[in-house]
From TrEMBL:
Keywords: Ligase. Residues 354-482 form the GH3 C-terminal domain. GO terms for cellular component: cytoplasm. It comes from the Eukaryota. This is Indole-3-acetic acid-amido synthetase GH3.9. The gene is Vigan.08G246200. Belongs to the IAA-amido conjugating enzyme family.
Length: 509
C-alpha cells in the first residue's frame, strides 16, 4: 500500500499499488536522463550528489507495509538491485539513503558528497526545501564533517550499523588536505556561491521548484551565485506519475510538463483562472459529463487533473491546478500553477484557508480574558531561514481600560499568552503540518507578529491604490506582495514564537 503525503486532505491517504507501478515509475526516472543528455553533455563522466531519504513505514491491520511512494521505490529491487549506470552514479551509498534516521542519513550523504567533491557533476534532492535543509545542516555541522575527513573516522553519533559499514569504505584513509580545503571554503563570512566552490564541476541543481517550492528559488540562486541552472525534471504524485519536462534548462517560472499517456488515463476538470470550479457541485464529486479528455484540452485553459490508474483509482481528483501551455505532438504540455484551495505552504504541508481560519478562531479565544479582540489577520510563509515557518500578522483591539503601554502601541497581554496563541494555532492545523513540525523538523515554530492599530486599513488602502475594488476587497489570507509585506513589517510592535512542538502521533493504517 502507498501512503500519500497528505497534502490533499490534511491526512495521509492509503491507496493500492501493484508491481507494474514500480516499473512505470522506473521508466519515468530512466527517461529523464536521455532528456538531460540533449542539453548537458558528459554526465557519465562524474557523479551525482543527490540527497534521498526514506520515511519509516507503517503497517495495515493485516500486516501489509504502507510506504510513501519514494520509500517504496528506494526499497524496491528496481533501486536496490539496479545495474551500474554511469549516468546515475550517486555519491551516497544505498545504505545511507535507506537509513530511517534523517540526521544520520544527512550526515553520511553530505560526507560522501564532500569526499567526492571533485567528481560531482550535479546536485539535487527531490524538493527544493529538502536541498536547502541540507545546506543548513552543512552550515551547522561542516566542522564535524571536516573532522571525519581529516581523521578518516566516522563521527561517533552515527550509530546505524549499515551506515558505519558503508562509510568505512568512503573514509578509507585520512585526508587532511581535503579537510583543509573544505574548512577554508566554509569558513568564509558569506556563503553566497558556496555550492560552486564546494563542488566546482557541478553543472546544475535538480529539485522540484514549481508550485509552493518556487519560493525557494532565490535562496538556491544565492547559494549557487546564480551560476547553476535549476532543473525540474518531472511532474509526479503519490497517486500517479504524470509527465516530464522536455526543456529542463528553462527558467523555473517557465517549467512545463509533457503528459505521458501510458502512465494512466487522464481526464480534466475545467477551472477558472484562480483555480475555482466553473460549475456548481460538491467538492468531492466528479461531474462525468463535464470532464475533458486528454486530447480535447484547450491552450491557455486551467484544469484539475482527474486520473484513473492501473492500480485501481477511478476518476480520482488530484487537487492540482494546471494550465495548458502547449503540445508535444498531441500530448498536452501543462504548467503546475498551485494546489487547489491552498493558502500557505513551506514544505510538503499545504494549509488551506478553511484550516487556517479554524485554527486562528480557536487560538484567539485565549485573548478574551484580557478583553482582547482579534480585528484582522493574514499570513506569510517566511523562507528566509531554514527551515521556513508560518508568520501570522495579528491586529488586536483591547476593549477594556487603556493602559499607558497600549497608548505606546505595545502589547497589553503578557508575552506568554501570545506564545500560547502560537501553539494553539499549530495544534489545530492538520496532521501533515504537525508531522513536519514535530517529527520531520522541516517547518519551524509558528510566529505571530502583532501589528499596530489601523494596519489592516492601511493594507486595504495599498491594494485599492493598486487597482483593487473597494466594494469587493477582502483581506488576503496569505500575503505575496513585497510592498504589502514591507508595510506589514513596518507596523510590527512585537513578535512571538511557539514555545514547543505541537502534539503529533503517527497514525496506523
Amino acid at each position: 500500500m502507498l501512503c500519500s503525503s497528505g497534502t490533499s486532505g490534511g491526512e495521509p491517504k492509503i491507496m493500492p499499488s501493484i508491481a507494474e507501478d514500480l516499473e512505470r515509475r522506473t521508466f519515468v526516472y530512466n527517461l529523464t536522463m536521455p532528456i538531460m543528455n540533449q542539453y548537458v553533455p558528459d554526465l557519465d563522466e562524474g557523479k551525482a550528489m543527490y540527497l534521498f531519504f526514506v520515511k519509516a513505514e507503517m503497517s495495515t491491520p493485516c500486516g501489509l507495509p504502507a510506504r510513501t511512494v519514494l520509500t517504496s521505490y528506494y526499497k524496491s529491487k528496481h533501486f536496490k538491485c539496479r545495474t551500474h549506470d554511469p549516468w546515475n552514479d550517486f555519491t551516497s551509498p544505498d545504505q545511507t539513503i535507506l537509513c530511517n534516521d534523517s540526521n544520520q542519513s544527512m550526515h553520511c550523504q553530505l560526507l560522501a558528497g564532500l569526499v567526492h567533491r571533485r567528481q560531482v557533476l550535479r546536485l539535487g534532492a527531490v524538493f527544493a526545501s529538502a536541498f536547502l535543509r541540507a545546506i543548513s545542516f552543512l552550515e551547522r555541522n561542516w566542522r564535524q564533517l571536516c573532522e571525519d575527513i581529516r581523521s578518516g573516522k566516522l563521527s561517533s553519533f552515527i550509530t546505524d550499523p549499515s551506515c558505519r559499514s558503508c562509510m568505512s569504505t568512503v573514509l578509507s584513509t585520512p585526508d587532511p588536505c581535503l579537510a583543509d580545503e573544505i574548512t577554508r571554503i566554509c569558513s568564509q563570512n558569506s556563503w553566497k556561491g558556496i555550492l560552486c566552490q564546494l563542488w566546482p564541476k557541478a553543472k546544475y541543481i535538480e529539485a522540484v521548484v514549481t508550485g509552493s517550492m518556487a519560493q525557494y528559488v532565490p535562496a538556491l540562486k544565492h547559494y549557487s551565485d546564480g551560476k547553476l541552472p535549476l532543473v525540474c525534471t518531472m511532474y509526479a504524485s503519490s497517486e500517479c506519475y504524470f509527465g516530464v519536462n522536455l526543456k529542463p534548462l528553462c527558467d523555473p517560472a517557465d517549467v512545463a510538463f509533457t503528459l505521458l499517456p501510458n502512465m494512466g488515463y487522464f481526464e480534466f476538470l475545467p477551472l477558472g483562472h484562480n483555480g475555482t470550479l466553473l460549475m456548481d457541485f460538491d467538492e468531492g464529486d466528479v461531474p462525468n459529463d463535464k470532464l475533458v479528455d486528454l486530447v480535447h484540452v484547450k491552450l491557455g485553459c486551467f484544469y484539475e487533473p482527474v486520473v484513473t490508474t492501473f492500480a485501481g483509482l477511478y476518476r480520482y481528483r488530484v487537487g492540482d491546478v494546471l494550465q495548458v501551455v502547449g503540445f508535444h505532438n498531441n500530448a498536452p504540455q501543462v504548467r503546475f500553477i498551485c494546489r487547489r484551495n491552498v493558502v500557505i505552504s513551506v514544505d510538503t504541508e499545504k494549509t488551506n484557508e478553511e484550516d487556517l481560519h479554524r485554527s486562528v478562531t480557536m487560538a484567539k479565544k485565549l485573548l478574551e480574558p484580557y478583553d482582547g479582540l482579534l480585528v484582522e489577520y493574514t499570513s506569510y510563509p517566511d523562507t528566509s531561514s531554514v527551515p521556513g515557518h508560518y508568520v501570522l500578522y495579528w491586529e488586536i483591539l483591547y476593549c477594556g481600560i487603556k493602559t499607558e503601554a497600549e497608548n505606546e502601541n505595545a502589547v497589553v497581554v503578557d508575552g506568554s499568552v501570545l506564545e500560547e496563541c502560537c501553539i494553539a494555532v499549530e495544534e489545530q492545523l492538520d496532521y501533515v503540518y504537525r508531522r513536519c513540525r514535530s517529527h520531520d523538523k522541516s517547518v519551524g515554530p509558528l510566529e505571530i507578529r502583532v501589528v499596530e492599530p489601523g494596519t489592516f486599513d492601511s493594507l486595504m488602502d495599498l491594494f485599492i491604490s493598486q487597482g483593487a475594488s473597494i466594494n469587493q476587497y477582502k483581506t488576503p489570507r496569505c500575503i505575496k506582495s513585497k510592498k504589502a509585506l514591507k508595510l506589514l513589517n513596518s507596523k510590527v510592535t512585537a513578535s512571538f514564537f511557539s514555545p514547543r512542538d505541537p502534539k503529533w502521533v503517527p497514525k496506523m493504517c
